[in-house]
Design brief:
Blueprint: E1 10-11, H1 25-39, H2 45-52, H3 55-64, H4 84-95, H5 111-124, E2 127-128, H6 139-155, H7 159-189, H8 195-220
Antiparallel strand pairs: 1-2
Length: about 220
Amino acid sequence: MFTYSLAGLQLKEAETGPVEVEENETTARSGLYQVLARFFNPPDEDHYDRARDGLWAKEMAHAATLLPFAFEVGEAPLPEEVDPAGWVAEHDRVFEAGGAVLQESRKATDADAMVTEVRREYDYFGLGLDGAALPPDHLSTECDFMQYLAFKEAATTSDRLRTSFRRAQRDFLDHHLVGWVPTLVAEADAKEPIGPLSWALGRLDEFVRADHAYLSTLLAG
């Protein structure tokens, strides 16, 4: 069985409908967004331990088992010379020190309008940010949203609602992740990040592109 696990967003009201569903190709997509949302959270010692032990790649490989499209996970062991403090410092160097930032609005022409738009989409689907540690336009928060929409798609028995959730995912990718992630990845890669960060950035870029193409094909059919 599969259930979603939000890393930043939260439900405004008690969940109605199924809270877990049988694993299938749609929960696999939700699971990938779940892993990505957690990986791009600000790192702590547990985050480092999971990178050191290769657990991020193992979790992603497990989630990808039932994906309806090809997706290569690969492995990215942490270099032995990096300790927990070095892991946090590397994260800050790559994502904050001069370019590759993890907030979409930092690259938007009208940051306020962009954040307002994202908040409106979360609110429409009953999700909020009260007490959230991350801003609404953070990469982890946006992956959280995609995780939730994919889970709702998997959980519904209504063809109409299933199409609606698919369209919401496709549109959110169109308006946000597909346009923003390639720039983020290119800027981060230019700083030559260590193995796990480079690996995660590549998996993020490939998955967002593949998922967008998959949803676009489904909705065109």
